[in-house]
Amino acid sequence: MSLSQPTSRRRESAPDSTAPRTGNAAPNAKRKPRYTTDAARWAAVIARDKAADGRFYYAVRTTGVYCRPSCGARLALRENVSFHDSREAAEHAGFRPCKRCKPDKAGLAAEHAARIAAACRRIESADAMPSLEMLASEAGLSTYHFHRLFKSVTGLTPRAYANARRGERVRSTLPIASSVTEALYDAGFNSNGRFYAAAGDMLGMKPAVFRDGGANEVIRFAVAQCALGALLVAATPRGLCAISLGDDPDALVREFQDRFPQAQLIGADAKFERWVAQVIGFVETPRIGLGLPLDVRGTAFQQRVWQALRDIPPGQTASYSDVAERIGSPRSVRAVAMACAANTLAVAIPCHRVVRQNGDVSGYRWGVAKKRALLAREASEGARTPGASTGDVNA
Length: 395
Ligand SMILES: [Zn+2]
What we know:
- One of its GO terms (molecular function) is sequence-specific DNA binding.
- The chain has 395 residues and is an alpha/beta fold.
- Helices cover 42% and strands 11% of the residues.
């Protein structure tokens, strides 16, 4: 893969004030727009200039195909070449995509996603968190651009991603490790203190409690009725850990008990009743936002998927492959679907907004009828109320 500096910033999200600002913060800003004349474009084609990819396409009259500027195919004669601003324009002019440089396949966005995916793999395989400078240089980007791109693709900063990933390693190692210390060294922590400081965030409980299968963990829960049927709401001291929908309240409780066999389950108190009321209001009208902390427990991959789901506004839907693209793992469509199915916080993590590519409402943990009802509600609410965030996540 080329490590050239991308010259387009159009795919990036809103400015991120947390991104570090370095001396070469905006290398692209110094460059004036190029490739505006045929002469400049032809020069880019001769140079097979990767930086020109996505800025224009060139087509060859004698072969009937169009290419990215960097295509490795034999250089055509200038007199047979025409330039097009977009692939649509080239195709409209009757040219078909080159089989070699595949100009019809996603370009810059896919390349960015691939670079970030490579950085994710790099973080996962490293014993210690690689520096931001090192990750950026390996991706061929400035630290500033890399940090922004990483966050827009994964929903997490590189450090948060590394922490989530280490948490995943600890979670998988703790139950089989001979000691907590062994598990934490295996996960790349080099001091007990740092591990215990991070453990609550990663595991949702103290390490020793986690090893015991969640024994003695206190979880409050209540079952209520809402417009969609029965609703079970449960919370640890850290935040909501379950929101389930169903038709049979007893079945909801049984399923919940099966999920937390070792925990100490207790009924609602006055404060928790207020939370339940808030959840009911939110489930019936997601647009109002939740505003309660969530105790999100999942692998780093699941957390990336769930973060992407929370970015889908009420009233809108995305396909499983859209979500896979957005988290930088375009080939993980099946894993995305599994992460959606593993979600235990109905509506708060809006997995109901993910539908099949053709728009079909597919499976839903709490029943396809409930998914249809939620989507219909959000569609009809659409024009009435302004958008609101879906709540704080304490993940
Ligand atoms: Zn080509």
